[in-house]
Amino acid sequence: MATEMLAYIDRKSFIHGLSGATKLIIFIMWSSIAMLTYDTRILLVLFIFSMIVLKVSKIKLREIGFVLLFILAFLLLNNIAIYIFSPQEGVKIYGTSHVLVEIVGRYNITLEQLFYQFNITLKYFAVIPAALLFIVTTHPSEFAASLNKIGVNYKIAYSVSLALRYIPDIQRDFRTIAQAQQARGIDLSSKEKLTKRIKNAGSIILPLILSSLDRIDTISNAMELRAFGKKKQRTWYNERNFNRHDYVTMLVGFIILIVSLVITFSDGSRFYNPFV
Amino acid sequence: MERGLSIKTIVAIGIGSAVFVILGRFASIPTGIPNTSIETSYAFLALMSIIFGPIAGVLIGLIGHALKDALFYGSIWWSWVLVSSFVGLFIGVFASRINIQSGIFGGKQIITFNIVQAIVQAIGWFLIAPTLDIIIYAEPANKVYLQGIAAGLSNIVTVGVIGTILLISYARTRSKSNSLSVE
């Protein structure tokens, strides 16, 4: 069971020095742009810009390599699926057809289709570095404080913080239970038939769920004793105040957002069409 | 006395999201059809929505799914995250009709639960997820609808089988109301 998972990587860099709330705001703006636009020029700029930020953050590609590999595999499969299901989607969007390679009928490879799939892939490439960076440069405890700072109710922010705190514990529970059941001959691997596997999965997740429900009781009693939620606000041990760097970063992010939206929607379509 | 969320709900959201993440990552069983697996995490989500109600459901779906995507896959597929929270919310809305805390989860409740979950998930996976995929990612319609239908059917069956089993087992751990008899 490979358990590689993205986690905070401690470094000294400009990005690590920013407050979590700044990074969260930038991340939200960044994903919104990448979701809204289909303009190749903007996506390329975003991608190059996020590579520069990656460099500044001193995070090495090797450290997040396993996730990148997974995403590349996903993008490859996704692109193949798109081509199989709709090989002329690009022609439909851009309105012209330049056939490059003749295969059969609608499976002819067109320049428009290649460009469309390039854009889909680029859309992921533009947002993935930002998401990865946000996760590996923000300390989990600071993350909850940041959520609260940008206006999320502190009780909900606290739930997120609880979730991050307990993921490793529950992962350990899961493994213990799975191993105990395997010792009793309950197999969850692909050697077992599908119906049997589903039944076996049930015998692992039921103890996990019941022990987690117990955990909920224990933790909520402890919090109740400490009068959690009594006041309208709370302070955070890991909260960081905004400094000059934060304001500058947010300003830059905001300018990028506005410029991207203006360029994207100025010609009435969110696609950049080089074919006309 | 309680203003807004109770402490128990807050903790349930936190721990529930963590369990959702772990089940989604380690306890999903591939069916052999590409991109479709038996997601035991949705059976768990349904259970939590029934026990703790719609607010817990919507937030476990949202936080759990977003964290799972972010921590293991490095990017968040918002279209599908929103469907998870939609499913959590609307199964939770019917929680009071099932009233699992009474310890009774027999034929009538099983039927109610399964009708509700099938309708909610059908709307979510067959309609909302593909439509959002088209709006956000401009993917080809026939591809995303087929993906949605495959994922939806498998999730409806998973919640129907594993979710029902979980609820029956959970109900057994509650003491039945009206279980005392005069001697």
UniProtKB/TrEMBL annotation, chain A:
The UniProt keyword set, sorted, is: Membrane, Transmembrane, Transmembrane helix
Q: CDD domains, from UniProt?
A: EcfT
Which domain of life does the protein's organism represent?
Bacteria
Cell compartment(s), UniProt: Membrane
What's a GO cellular component annotated to this UniProt protein? plasma membrane
Tell me the Pfam families matching this sequence: CbiQ
Q: InterPro entries, alphabetically?
A: ABC/ECF_trnsptr_transmembrane (IPR003339)
Q: What is its main location?
A: membrane
Topology relative to the lipid bilayer, per the entry, is: Multi-pass membrane protein
For this protein, the parts annotated as crossing the membrane are 24-54, 66-85, 114-136, 247-266
Q: Which PANTHER family does the protein's record reference?
A: ABC TRANSPORTER PERMEASE (PTHR33514:SF1), PROTEIN ABCI12, CHLOROPLASTIC (PTHR33514)
User: What is the protein name given in its UniProt record?
Assistant: Energy-coupling factor transport system permease protein
UniProtKB/TrEMBL annotation, chain B:
Gene3D superfamilies in the record, alphabetically?
Answer: 1.10.1760.20
Q: Name one GO cellular component term.
A: plasma membrane
Indicate the transmembrane segments per the record: 6-28, 40-64, 76-95, 115-138, 144-168
Could you say which protein family the record assigns here? Belongs to the UPF0397 family.
Task: Indicate where this protein is primarily found.
Answer: membrane
Q: Does the keyword Protein biosynthesis apply?
A: no
Identify this protein by name. UPF0397 protein DFR56_10625
UniProtKB keywords: Cell membrane, Membrane, Transmembrane, Transmembrane helix
Q: Which Pfam families does the entry mention?
A: ECF-ribofla_trS
InterPro entries reported for this sequence:
ECF_substrate-spec-like, UPF0397
Compartments where located: Cell membrane
Superkingdom of the organism of origin: Bacteria
User: Which HAMAP family is this protein grouped with?
Assistant: UPF0397
Per UniProt, what is the membrane topology?
Answer: Multi-pass membrane protein
Q: Does the keyword Phosphoprotein apply?
A: no
